[in-house]
């Protein structure tokens, strides 16, 4: 389809042919208007102008949408692959950098910066165009990946992951914004389903790649796990080349905005202290003076954020007027809650497979295959059903219910549970996320005006990332907080038995336990590599302590998901999506 195909045609008069449309200007080479502003909304002095009023939505042919989609999914695959690669190798990385209990920072640092940057991407892409900002996001992601590969400590790695997150936040939100720009709400599920399939594909390739790199000693003189990040650089170069070309097809209507730097700063002050408490509360004490100070700072930051957003009006980082729309309010709420469960499960389940079941990173990645298969099948099926019928609530409720069931299954896992037990939970999780994620996004976008689509989609990703950040930090914090005490008690009881005490005094086992068991009987969980060389009878108290903590963690996650299920079933209207 040529650009002129998107323009309205004059209807044919009776007895004569239709008048052809006037020649259209290509999106990337617009003719300047007579008022002295450029077609992209830039004034003659070079400052962003008000730009043209948003006209009717641009409609591309299916073939052209697929071409654009190919570039978007490549960028999203880059970000999704990084998350799944890291999750399967995180134990190896943390052991090498001596920071197993601090590993949550590697995940949360990425999510925090991506969360805060996501709303800014919506505004920046409105001002400078989707394509230009998307390419900048890829470059930021590549630079962060390169620095992650050179990290010397777990906290240094977390810092570079934060830089990586600045790029990753744009890769996710802008892809969904572009698809929303060029499709109707009813069509959207058909194409957004491919984004969910990208995550599923990344969950197949990621754990395998991560397992291969993490399991290898070194490659070209560089520790194997560092290649998990370094491999992103050539992939980013390919993504940069492809997206630079295909995103030229997107009409570039730019709108003048003021960037809400005050809102971004207030949001940072509000979110970061609360996430620090979520990570460090188990060490400091949840009611310690340091924790109470951070609670206060975070609350003050969130109040300040609301004040700034109200004053900024339509230029707010998260426009408060969007929350007057019921579908947007429900969609963002569900994204936040489901994000808690999704990221919490994705960070905790690999630890069960590796710590408790003794799997290598690569074997753990392969064991996650049921999640991927279920996710791909359900994602593509639901996308087509939504496009055909226009209804989405039934898929949303079914998806959230399935994910809730997965949490319950995980909460019943034990040290000796068979793999089919784990696989059952994985099928429920994959199917649930496949049905829920795209329908929640469609719900949030369904009634938003087109001129607000960038900010709305960024807000959706903001709430999902925020939920993911809370979930990753809270799940691992609860897990290691409970595991430390439980393991200490079980190990003390085991060593009271003469046979096990003599076993612990054997040179090999004594060396393995050195530095793990402190003089006061407590245990250090900074490194789990000793479990591989410890006698299974002595390792049993550690495994049982981890499993007990995981059961409580997953049951808490099931309770959180039950809240999402109640909202989806009783608050979301059974409305039909528009074709316009």
UniProtKB/TrEMBL annotation:
UniProt-annotated stretches for the region Disordered: 1-58
Its membrane topology: Multi-pass membrane protein
Pfam families, sorted: MFS_1
PROSITE patterns per record: MFS
Biased composition (Pro residues): 18-33
Occurrences of domain Major facilitator superfamily (MFS) profile (ranges): 68-576
Keywords: Cell membrane, Membrane, Transmembrane, Transmembrane helix, Transport
Database matches in SUPFAM superfamilies: MFS general substrate transporter (SSF103473)
Highest taxon in the source lineage: Bacteria
Compositional bias per record (Low complexity), positions renumbered to this chain: 34-47
TM annotation in the entry: 65-90, 102-121, 133-154, 160-182, 194-215, 227-247, 259-278, 284-308, 328-353, 359-382, 394-413, 419-444, 465-487, 549-570
InterPro entries with a match to the protein in the record: EmrB-like, MFS, MFS_dom, MFS_trans_sf
GO function terms (MF aspect): transmembrane transporter activity
Main location: membrane
Record localization: Cell membrane
One of the record's GO cellular component terms: plasma membrane
Family designation: Belongs to the major facilitator superfamily. TCR/Tet family.
Classification via NCBIfam families: efflux_EmrB
The protein's name in its UniProt record: MFS transporter
Annotated organism of origin: Streptomyces ruber
